[in-house]
Amino acid sequence: MPSTEEERRPGLLERTFDRLLLRNTRVAAVQQVSERFRLIDLEGEALKGAAWAPGHKLQVKVAGPFTARTFTPIVFDVMRGRTRLLGYAHGAGPGSDWLRRVQVGDACQVFGPHRSLALGDLAGPVVLHGDETSFGLAAAVVAAMAGREGPRCVFEVESRAESALALQALGVATAVLVERRDEALRMQAASELWSQCSGDGTLFVLTGRAQSIQQARQALKARGVPGSRIVSKAYWAPGKAGMD
Description:
Elements: H1 4-8, H2 12-21, E1 23-32, E2 37-43, E3 57-63, E4 67-71, E5 75-77, E6 82-88, H3 94-101, E7 107-114, E8 126-131, H4 135-144, E9 152-157, H5 160-170, E10 175-179, H6 183-197, E11 203-209, H7 210-222, E12 230-236
Parallel strand pairs: 8-9, 8-11, 9-10, 11-12
Antiparallel strand pairs: 1-2, 1-7, 2-6, 3-4, 3-7, 5-6
């Protein structure tokens, strides 16, 4: 019977995958923003020169074999080889476990960055609809729109107080927070925001929970918003793991 150490040793296929496709980084900083939110800085020579734009994704190997979780980098310094992620430890699982235990100096392998959302040049107004998994994207868009009016956001969240702390740390100022259990209030808040913006060429960005995205897309189309002004990406759905 193999020992515990042998059971944990990566197999040939996993080692080959890691060597050929993953970038080696180290954890440069960890900041606990609240009970469940953590800001994590990764750095490494392998990140230098990477092709990145707001909305791109970075997959972090959190366990093995082939166990990764996807994050939306807030910033990506391709000259220094450094990026910042916001993690949300929302329950039990490999991703949340990694967020709770990660420490400065830890080795970390990543895959990407890769294109996830096609946001374009962000030249016009932007409205974001999402949840806690969308906060990193919101911060990236705020940074990309520096010097102009930033995105207007409505987020469904588990805790308004904890989410407000995370958004404050990220510099995301214009956000409406509605607790997830209040479905009617969430749609009302989104509808009020859309009514202020739907006629001015606004880009509507829908991310987070798959069901909420579907509802939001249907509501926007019912208002006459053309599909060309709606971009979406489901980050998660109840009962499904590994979505990005």
